[in-house]
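Input for the complex:
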Amino acid sequence: DAGVTQSPTHLIKTRGQQVTLRCSPKSGHDTVSWYQQALGQGPHFIFQYYEEEERQRGNFPDRFSGHQFPNYSSELNVNALLLGDSALYLCASSFGGSLWGYTFGSGTRLTVV
Amino acid sequence: ELKVEQNPLFLSMQEGKNYTIYCNYSTTSDRLYWYRQDPGKSLESLFVLLSNGAVKQEGRLMASLDTKARLSTLHITAAVHDLSATYFCAVDTTQGGSEKLVFGKGMKLTVNP
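Predicted:
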């Protein structure tokens, strides 16, 4: 039973570019949340998707957008990249809210130069 | 806004010793999670604490939750080098019918032989 799969694992982009990160949730999970973890910090909530809609959003600018597909997989898009966007981006999937806990993927390490 | 504070943030201890680390949070929540993160890796779920007075143990780690005091503890018994990692507590918060995790800054544990 595959867990949460994220791609790519590493990515280097230039300031001003756009990036798309992908996440496939654990089998049976229908909710996907995205978190940003800067070096030496705890993860910060970006947004959550359920039934292909954004249910909740953290304190991130509109440059951060997402999408959820009918098969529950999700994308995170970041436009006009800044150096400060360099971080580990984690995807977490869950089912029926958080009562059964969250499963985190291995993350995408984004470096903006 | 929910805030989660961990202390200490850094801990160096010798093998065989015991220690307790703390996680305080600022608003009511009935779900608290402990995660472990190795350098460059994703989050590994350690414990999910769902109610006041909950206590869970796995190997040399034991976690407890006091929702009235808004406090969770993670007790380390007879530490071994393999426990060296960063430990995060995270609190579930509900907004608009959906949940998100708010993380502490993490505690970096180094266990010395």
